[in-house]
Amino acid sequence: MKPGTFETLRVDEQVDYGYFLTDGEKRVLLHNNEVTEEIQVGDEIEVFFLVDSTDRLSATMKKPFITEGEYGWTDVVDVRDEYGAFINIGLAKDALVGKDNLPFLREVWPEPGDKLYCTLKVTNNGRFFVRLATEEIIKPLLKNADRELFNKEISGTVYRMIVAGSFIITDEGYKGFIHSTQRTREPRLGERVTGRVIDVKEDGTVNISLLPRKHEALSDDAEKIFAYMKERGGAMPYSDKSDAEDIKERFSLSKGAFKRAIGHLMKAGKVYQEGGWTYEKKEEDVPKG
C-alpha cells in the first residue's frame, strides 16, 4: 500500500465513519466521504491510496485525473506567492506546482481557471506534487498544420515560455509560437489565448499573432478619447455635434480628427451617442437575440 497507487482490496469491516479494507495482511481506512458507490463487507473494490490530514495512509474510491507517469490537462484552483499553484486532480486535496517550477516573473504565473498539462509526482512521505510536461512529452500530442490555416483565427493554451515568446497547443493539436513582438502583453502559463495564424512553417508548426488586424486596431486619437471616457465612468459630454473649440481645448484635436476617432469607436462597437453625449457601449446595452 503506497500513496499514489491503485490496488484492489477486500472490504473487511464497516464502522460509523467508513470502512476498513484489507489485502489480507494490512488494513486501511476508506472514509465515508471517499465512497463513490454502495459497498458492503466482503466486496472487492479498487482504491487509490493517499495520505490524510493526520499523515496516515488512507484510501479513496475516487479516481484522480492524473497519476504518476500519466499526463492530462488539469485546472488551477489557487495560487499563493509563498508556495506556487494548486491544481485540481479530482481528489479532496489539491496537488502543488512549486513556485520553483513556475516562471520567474510572478505576473505570468497561472491564475485560477487556467489549465496545465502535467503529471502527478508523489514524494516518499506521500505528498502530492505536480510536474509540468516537457517538450518531449508534448511532442507526441502534436499534429501538422495545413497551409490553409494561414490568416485564420486559432485558439490554444500556453504550455511553455522562453525569453523570445510563448508556445501554445491549439485546440486542434497544433504547436504554435507567439513571438514577443506579436503581443501587447505576455500571456500567462496555462492561459487560453486566441490569435491569428501569420505563418505555417514547413515542420507543421504555426506562428501566431495576438495583435489586432490593422483595420481592427484603434487609432491613437480613439484610444485617447476612450481612455478619457473610462476615467469618467464611461460617459462624456462631447459628441460629433460638439463645438470645435471645446473639442480642441479638451483633446487637442481638430473637430475633423475628433469625428474620425469617434467614428472609429462606433464602428468598433465601443461607444454610442445620445443627447449630445457619448457613452461606452457595455454588454447590457447590446440587445439580446
TrEMBL record:
Xref: Pfam families: CvfB_1st, CvfB_2nd, S1_2, WHD_CvfB
Annotated InterPro entries: CvfB_fam (IPR014464), CvfB_S1_2nd (IPR048588), CvfB_S1_3rd (IPR048587), CvfB_S1_st (IPR039566), CvfB_WH (IPR040764), NA-bd_OB-fold (IPR012340), S1_domain (IPR003029), WH-like_DNA-bd_sf (IPR036388)
Domain S1 motif: 151-211
PANTHER family membership: CONSERVED VIRULENCE FACTOR B
Family to which this protein belongs: Belongs to the CvfB family.
Record's protein name: S1 RNA-binding domain-containing protein
Organism: Metabacillus fastidiosus
